[in-house]
Amino acid sequence: MRINEGMNVPIEIKSEWIESFKNVFSLCEIKKSEKVIILSECSSRRGNIEIAKIALGLLSIDYTLIELKSKMNEGPLKVSTGASNVLNGRDFTVNVLCETDVIIDLTYEGLMHSEATGKILRSGTRIMNISNESPEILCRLSPKIEMKEKVKNSLKSFRSSKNMTIKSEVGTDLTINIKRSPVVGVWGWTNKPGTLAHWPGGLVACFPGRKTANGTIVFSPGDINLTFKKYFESEVKCIIKDDFITEVHGNSLDAKLMRQYLESFKDINNYAISHVGWGLNSDARYEAISMYEKSQINGTELRVLEGNFLFSTGANEFANRFTEGHFDLPMMDCLIELDGAVIVQDGKVFC
């Protein structure tokens, strides 16, 4: 089967892509009796919609397709925000989603930090977010059963700890009180009502509460700016006070771009920490964003890269902060400790 994917370029749907989607839906344990909605929007990747439809059909699972008109972002540039706005102001659609059992989330940004997500999950609906990536990338990172145990081991360490520290040889020194911070883990599928998972999976993260994070973050060449879909080429130093970036130091283009982007939203929540954690997926490739054009990739693979420290700014629904300004910033070569115990060092995970 051939379809048009962006720019009217025809692509052929490969059997291995379909098998990967079937694998995810099978792991989600979707029952034939359950109500299933494929949620997409005009800007969603067409190929993934078609593959999802085929895979569900082969599993004899009925579904309803809801495709919404994409909304413009409130920010100055239409780039990745990490928080879909497609459900904003669409109360009728949200209520419909609350009455279903499973949402196959194919929205452009994903519902992870959407303002409507909390209500949907509280209704008992589970959300399976499929990142808006090439099916080739998704297939390469098809979830594996053993990932669940890896994530659970990290979750156990995270949830039993009070303090998290992150350090690096270039000057990162950040301390976060995580005693009451919500902690989440994603292994790539969800079979439990009221939960959300994303594919690619292999990540643990906490959402720091108010006034819990202080210190310094120093990005160095080779760290990754997923919002700009590029690797840092120079050093950028950020001062963190009570969860918010208060200063961005550096004379390089990397620093200038970060400062200007943060300022452009004119929203203080844009400067706040969204979530912090580490990746666990050994199948994720560090060099991935150098292999594709920016329009072809979102870089979600780098969020789950094994051993990275994921530092993110912007929306933090647990702290009741919502904004369209967002940075996902995987950092390499960081030392992560929980209550003094080494958890990640030199790209290796010890839990």
* Order of neighbouring strands in the sheet with most strands: 16-15-12-8-7-20-21-22
Distance between the termini: 44 Å
Number of alpha- plus pi-helical segments: 8
Average the pLDDT over all residues and give the rounded result. Answer: 92
Cα-based radius of gyration, to the nearest Å: 19 Å
Percent of residues in beta strands: 25-35%
Report the uncertain regions. Answer: none
Number of DSSP-assigned strands: 22
Largest sheet: 8 strands, antiparallel
Helix content: 10-25%
| Helix/strand class | alpha+beta
Order of helices and strands: EEHEHEHEHEHHEEEEEEEEEEHEHEEEEE
Shape: globular
Describe the protein.
By secondary structure, this protein is α+β, with helices and mostly antiparallel strands. Helix content is 22%, strand content 29%. The chain contains eight helices and 22 strands. It has an eight-stranded antiparallel beta sheet with strand order 16-15-12-8-7-20-21-22, covered by helices on one side. Strands 4-3-5-6-10 form a five-stranded parallel beta sheet, covered by helices on one side. It has a five-stranded antiparallel beta sheet with strand order 9-11-17-18-19, with helices on one face. The chain is globular and about 55 Å long. The termini are far apart.
Provide key terms for this protein.
351 residues; alpha+beta; eight-stranded antiparallel β-sheet; five-stranded parallel β-sheet; 22 strands; 22% helix; globular
In short:
The chain has 351 residues and is of the alpha+beta class.
How are the SSEs placed, and which strands pair?
Elements (H helix, E strand, L loop, with lengths): L1 E4 L3 E4 L2 H13 L8 E6 L4 H13 L5 E5 L22 H8 L3 E4 L11 H6 L3 E5 L4 H6 L4 H15 L3 E5 L5 E5 L5 E4 L9 E4 L3 E4 L6 E7 L4 E2 L4 E2 L4 E6 L2 E6 L3 H12 L8 E7 L20 H4 L5 E5 L13 E5 L3 E4 L2 E5 L2 E2 L2
Helix pairs in contact: 1-2
